[in-house]
Amino acid sequence: MTSPETRCRFEQDIPAWFxxxxxxxxxxxxxxxxxxxxxxxxxxxxxxxxxxxxxxPMPEIPSRDLAPAVLARIRAERSxxxxxxxxxxxxxxxxxxxxxxxxxxxxxxxxxxxxxxxFVAAALGWLHETxxxxxxxxxAKWGAQQNYTPALTALAALAFLRQDASALRGxxxxxxxxxxxxxLTQQNAEGRFGxxxxxxxxxxxxxxxxxxxxxxxxGEPRWREAADKALEYIRATQLAHGGWGYPRTSGDPGNTxxxxxxxxxxxxxxxxxxxELRPAIEKGMAWxxxxxxxxxxxxxxxxxxxxxxxETLTAAGALCLLTDPxxxxxxxxxxxxxxxxxxxxxxxADVDYYRLYFTAHALRVSGTEKADALVTGLQQTxxxxxxxxxxxxxxxxxxxxWTSAGGRVYATAMAVLAM
Length: 419
Fold this sequence. Notes:
The protein has 419 residues and is mainly alpha-helical. The protein has helices spanning 14-18, 24-34, 38-55, 67-77, 86-109, 115-130, 149-163, 173-185, 200-216, 221-236, 256-271, 278-289, 311-323, 331-347, 353-366, 371-383, 403-418. Helix 9 runs antiparallel to helix 10 (221-236). The longest helix is centred in the first third of the chain and has 24 residues, at 86-109.
């Protein structure tokens, strides 16, 4: 999840507003926002003063008297006649020069688009264009397994929701609404999303998180009701020892990769007022603490269990441990987890969208001195993954080991979420 921006996103539209370059819809939206935003009001007033100063006449600088030389030149040229159309040409040249100078000044005044913002805008644009009419993102079409359609749709919706607090009212609003409504069609009476399969816990965690996020943005009551049902399913499928695992697996010890998605949902809902979820959260946190070793590395099903490495598991576990307001982990354990997180973030540059999402998110939540620099490094890795041309421009390439399950939609959405 990205940290709140220090500047309002509407500030970048101020130059275009002054020059009447916004569409009627954009202008109405901007002016409505401006009326209630002190930050943008102050910025627009500053811009107005800057334009006024640029348009003010330059102070006269005393110079030598040129009159004698000018008169002498006039006398020398008196016999040469100007064409009749000369005043028109001069006037046109003056207008052209003024337009060129104005364009240069305005170009310099218009703020440059940061690489991160350019990346996100292009990625969201691609996701916008590739949504199916019924609101889903076609898993098979973009190289994913069909069973993960609810999860992919949820991740795409989350990418919009977390990048823009006004996503339900902005230019992508209809896309987000269709995506969320599609998720409702995939939920059964128990609250489960999609068919029962090995991917169910991921479908459940991601879809529930998207609906909770929408509810937190003031979304429709139907989304909140669906989120409540989904949370009940998550609580019902929690294992006796506190973790979550694959369905229909007898004696499943649970695993971190699945557990962290369920915990993210419970923690987010609790932050929005669902205090009755605390017992389930405490059980889940107790299980998670139990798979952390003395070096702060988070295991898969037990401490020091790393079938695919510990980097991603440690980042995912760190996110939940840091997000928990009760801070269930001891100070020593949390410090060890943070050291392991920063160490892996600083030395791994390979493309793994799952790891990059959790690592960037956990670093931001940690707020440590190294966090910003480490996140910037992770972003550089992601910038290089974005397609720059062709039909897939704006989307992210699929070189990591998990994109065989999630495909290009997964890669693009997770990259945006890591931003």
